[in-house]
């Protein structure tokens, strides 16, 4: 059986001698993460570092993604986004509104929404590789309302049929959040993935939000230890061009908002990003469906 289409070769190395692996991940242990593990999961503050490290080892055994090697699952990325207050407002004011996290890893952002007052029945998660069980081990909530009501399944963002198996994903999602996912692909595969996200959206008023890596002048990025097509890192112009193309291909219209962010604004230690190059930067996006 061939590997999933969006599974990068560098994520299956099974080694630690790569530049995106930190021996000590406490540098990315945010206050929000520690507060969550203490107040929500009941873990003693003095045990959080050891607990997080043991979880990282289990995640790394499944995939060697940079977000795992650098311990970025300790950062609730969604809460840093300029779009977060409006997402919360939509979900809390409309109990029928739905939120899908594409590339949810251990469900850390979904739990952040839960603790900010969003009902778990509104939340869905999907990922290419199954880390969901490790999420329950990390947050120790396998018997709680999160486990009982949040819907989850594995699926490939480049395979629409696999994502539609997550009910009620097909054409019924109000807010789709996808962070650190699309930038793994070349331009054409990003268009394909975005078309699939469009197919999951409910209609006008739906949004696709997230954060990923870009260049100030858009171009391909060479990734160490990778045999895949080189990923495309956007700038504001190419990001808008991509969504214009997606709209044309799907018969929809989208308004794309793009904002550069610094590593520090996401509580990411700059020293841990040097392997990417000095000209790589984070950007956030909020793409709204007009028709």
Chart the SSEs and their pairings.
Elements: H1 31-39, H2 48-62, H3 66-69, H4 84-93, E1 99-102, H5 108-115, E2 123-127, H6 132-139, H7 145-149, E3 151-154, H8 160-164, E4 175-177, H9 187-200, E5 207-215, E6 219-220, E7 232-233, H10 236-250, E8 254-261, E9 280-289
Parallel strand pairs: 1-2, 1-4, 2-3, 4-5
Antiparallel strand pairs: 5-9, 6-7, 8-9
Helix pairs in contact: 9-10
Q: Any low-confidence stretches, pLDDT <50, length ≥5?
A: none
What's the number of helices? Answer: 10
User: What does the overall shape look like?
Assistant: globular
Percent in helix = 25-40%
- Identify the quaternary structure here: single chain
Could you give the count of β-strands? Answer: 9
Question: Proportion of β residues?
Answer: 15-25%
Descriptive account of the structure:
The chain is an alpha/beta fold. The protein is 32% helix and 16% strand. The chain is built from 10 helices and 9 strands. A 7-stranded mixed sheet has the order 3-2-1-4-5-9-8, with helices on both faces. The protein has a two-stranded antiparallel sheet with strand order 6-7. Strand 4, helix 9 (187-200) and strand 5 (207-215) form a beta-alpha-beta unit. The protein is globular, with a radius of gyration of 18 Å. It starts with 30 loop residues before the first helix and ends with a strand. The model has no long low-confidence stretch (mean pLDDT 96).
